Amino acid sequence: xxxxxxxxxxxxxxxxxxxxxxxxxxxxxxxxxxxxxxxxxxxxxxxxxxxxxxxxxxxxxxxxxxxxxxxxxxxxxxxxxxxxxxxxxxxxxxxxxxxxxxxxxxxxxxxxxxxxxxxxxxxxxxxxxxxxxxxxxxxxxxxxxxxxxxxxxxxxxxxxxxxxxxxxxxxxxxxxxxxxxxxxxxxxxxxxxxxxxxxxxxxxxxxxxxxxxxxxxxxxxxxxxxxxxxxxxxxxxxxxxxxxxxxxxxxxxxxxxxxxxxxxxxxxxxxxxxxxxxxxxxxxxxxxxxxxxxxxxxxxxxxxxxxxxxxxxxxxxxxxxxxxxxxxxxxxxxxxxxxxxxxxxxxxxxxxxxxxxxxxxxxxxxxxxxxxxxxxxxxxxxxxxxxxxxxxxxxxxxxxxxxxxxxxxxxxxxxxxxxxxxxxxxxxxxxxxxxxxxxxxxxxxxxxxxxxxxxxxxxxxxxxxxxxxxxxxxxxxxxxxxxxxxxxxxxxxxxxxxx
Length: 499
Hints:
Blueprint: H1 4-22, H2 27-34, H3 38-45, H4 53-62, H5 67-71, H6 80-87, H7 89-93, H8 103-112, H9 114-130, H10 135-149, H11 155-167, H12 178-189, E1 192-194, E2 209-212, E3 217-220, H13 226-241, H14 259-276, H15 279-290, H16 297-306, H17 311-326, E4 331-338, E5 345-353, H18 373-388, E6 394-402, E7 408-417, E8 425-433, H19 436-441, E9 452-455, H20 475-498
């Protein structure tokens, strides 16, 4: 991530590079005019060195410019878009190094032919400003890209979990008990658990846990399920065992002010899920699932109970294991939330591997397709609750064929009431692109009884004519078609005039 001093060096180096090229000076010639070593000039242009005042004066004279222009943080029209990009939050907060990108090298490449990239950079800057994108948005986008780049599987974390289990003689077979996790925290890290303090603070209702390093205490709120407690305890073990110093202390990060903090939070969460859901056990469970000749909702929910985990943890773990051990790389994961009236369904979490799959665009304030099993299962759950007080969770599977595309996905969903507020509901879904590899893995895809539906992203964009679940008219689609008709009419008019 770019620091302020790095920004100053980069801008200075860009100006020297541009002026030298405009005047068709070689490094040797500029060295002779200024008395500065060629290697030193290289480092200046790459943003690695910032010369002292006397050397800046020498450079200004040799490049036929003035001192103030070189030290200013502004530039001429050709360089200004690149300068704007350097000044923007993007390079200051986006962890390019995580993806093997050297920031000075990126700037150097952009500056070689600024005329060709200025329009693109200007567009990026305008998007950042118009959509009010902040550091937090970049951090989260970077983390999702990092997961995608690694197929959502991190061998070093899996290895750390295996080593931790060996060191502490933990069994492979689930589930791990709450008292085991508490004992490990106390014995290894002298860390105690407090379940009373947060419950006594009304303002802390939204905080599931808080870690106080000075007193070595993990505060847990009341009203958590056993699975939620185990996740938080195992996550704290992850923070401690992996020695992740820059970290959030509360469960739900109230402010994402550092990428390292967000990344370490992800690592500890990954450690927790991998600890509670043993890798080899999960592989065996998926192999068993692959032999089903029809979709078995009860057997799938048995996994949920076997590991004593939340539905989100189970679906996320599938998204770890399937790419690494079964070659199923094209998948998405998302989570929906709904209030009791079921008037609006909010997509609160989303991840894509290998490509941007349908559905996406969760920033749109539109009505998501009611044919999705993610939404249908929430509605089914609410209907059951009204009839027989079903508490859930319930599970389902569906083949979703995306209208207007050749793509179809096997979508597996778990829906359940929210633990603290059971009048609200949520669902988590893993969507697997149906291809030959997936068909060879899961036999039940051949079952004609498996539900299959044509779906779209949102009602506003959907052209399915006989949809009985539409919430609103296809306004976006209608607007686009109207524009297409106007364009076609104008083209016909042009041809008529030409003839």
